[in-house]
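A.,

Following up on our hallway conversation. Structure tokens first:
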């Protein structure tokens, strides 16, 4: 069936639809919105994409995204450089920063181990983490990958790699969300909550 849209518009829709979490209908809405922008705003939008692509890169220390020589966390002298929190993606750093409780530094893996998706240790930033720990000065590595099969596998793999360096490797405790009821918790969540219990 022939498309009712011009080829250039179909191409724009296809590009939006290729973004993670964007379905075909959302892609169409975004494409129509971009077409409705005044020329100046559309040009500014395109320039913002190209500017981000050209200036944002991985911090050479922690692999988080930055547009400077190092990221803001690594440059902050008040951060505890002896504690590294390992996360899968840059957006996970924002989640932990929102708590305002963590004062250490980060390491971003840019993915997790996933044999089904053909993602192995060399495809994510594990070697960079091992080198940081090997260089010394690190006392604890907190594994903050998601509590799913890939996240757990990645955490276990990294903990085995770091064992020879004598650093403490911990895992975030997962359990009952604040404000929820025990009767609605699944078995796996209850097991995690029991394992992560602490003294009052």
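Then the amino acids I'd put at each of the 200 positions:
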């Amino acid at each position: 069936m022939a498309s009712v849209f011009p080829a250039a518009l179909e191409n724009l829709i296809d590009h939006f639809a290729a973004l993670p979490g964007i379905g075909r209908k959302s892609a169409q809405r975004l494409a129509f919105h971009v077409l409705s922008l005044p020329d100046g705003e559309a040009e500014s939008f395109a320039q913002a994409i190209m500017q981000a692509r050209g200036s944002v890169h991985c911090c050479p220390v922690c692999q988080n995204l930055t547009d400077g020589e190092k990221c803001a966390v690594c440059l902050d002298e008040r951060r505890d450089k002896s504690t590294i929190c390992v996360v899968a993606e840059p957006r996970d750093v924002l989640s932990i920063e929102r708590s305002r409780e963590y004062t250490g530094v980060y390491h971003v893996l840019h993915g997790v181990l996933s044999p089904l998706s053909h993602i192995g240790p060399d495809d994510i930033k594990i070697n960079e983490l091992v080198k940081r720990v090997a260089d010394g000065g690190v006392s604890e590595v907190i594994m903050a990958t998601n509590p799913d099969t890939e996240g757990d596998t990645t955490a276990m793999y990294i903990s085995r790699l770091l064992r020879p360096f004598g650093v403490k490797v911990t895992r975030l405790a997962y359990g009952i969300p604040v404000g929820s009821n025990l009767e609605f918790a699944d078995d796996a969540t209850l097991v995690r909550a029991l394992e992560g219990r602490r003294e009052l």
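The beta strands are 57-58, 65-66, 80-87, 104-108, 140-143, 168-171. Curious whether your intuition agrees with the design.

B.
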